[in-house]
Write a structure and sequence with these properties.
9 helices; Molybdenum Cofactor Biosythetic Enzyme, Chain A; six-stranded mixed β-sheet; 181 residues; alpha/beta
């Protein structure tokens, strides 16, 4: 599995302070996926830079999972969710709902998070908050679902039958009976 971590922060990019959230996520990947991160980069809070990095990592580097940290709040330069939505093809709102729900148990400020998650090709992209503690907590919230999500995206572990809703199957059978009558 190929995993990338993209820290989005003007100040870390400019060297004003050291990135703390990226290294936290690197350690969590090592601990829970038993591997090193394939790509790690710090970029400024700029829509185009974020979108280009995500698209390049998906399309050229063939990452399976990209975790971003930072740029998900209400500040004027917090544009990570918008850049992520521009890069993805399909949203994965359940991951975001789970993270916000879990975070609300700890702080009402979770309501101010604007994280996004979605799929581009065969890559899952998940925005996490910029604080090391919040990045850790949110990662651990979605961790139980990540292996299965990544299997599904790769096409492993799910058949068409597994994914078909029972009502859809009943409707299809009804239509097939009507055609043959």
């Amino acid at each position: 599995m190929r995993i990338g971590i993209l820290t989005v922060s003007d100040r870390a990019y400019e060297g004003i302070y050291e990135d703390e959230s990226g290294p936290v996520l690197i350690e969590l990947v090592r601990e829970h996926f038993h591997q090193d991160v394939d790509l790690y980069h710090i970029c400024p809070d700029e829509f185009g830079a974020i979108q280009r990095a995500l698209e390049k990592w998906c399309d050229d580097a063939h990452m399976d999972l990209i975790l971003t940290t930072g740029g998900t709040g209400f500040a004027p330069r917090d544009v990570t969710p918008e850049a992520t939505r521009a890069a993805i093809e399909r949203e994965a709102p359940g991951l975001v709902y789970a993270m916000i729900h879990a975070s609300l148990q700890k702080t009402p400020h979770a309501m101010l998070s604007r994280m996004a998650a979605g799929i581009r090709g065969r890559t899952l992209i998940v925005n996490l908050p910029g604080s090391p503690r919040a990045a850790r907590e949110n990662f651990l919230t979605i961790l139980p679902a990540l292996p299965h999500a990544l299997e599904l995206i790769r096409g492993d572990g799910a058949t068409e039958h597994d994914l078909e809703h029972p009502i859809d199957a009943e409707e299809r059978e009804r239509q097939e009976r009507n055609v043959s009558d």
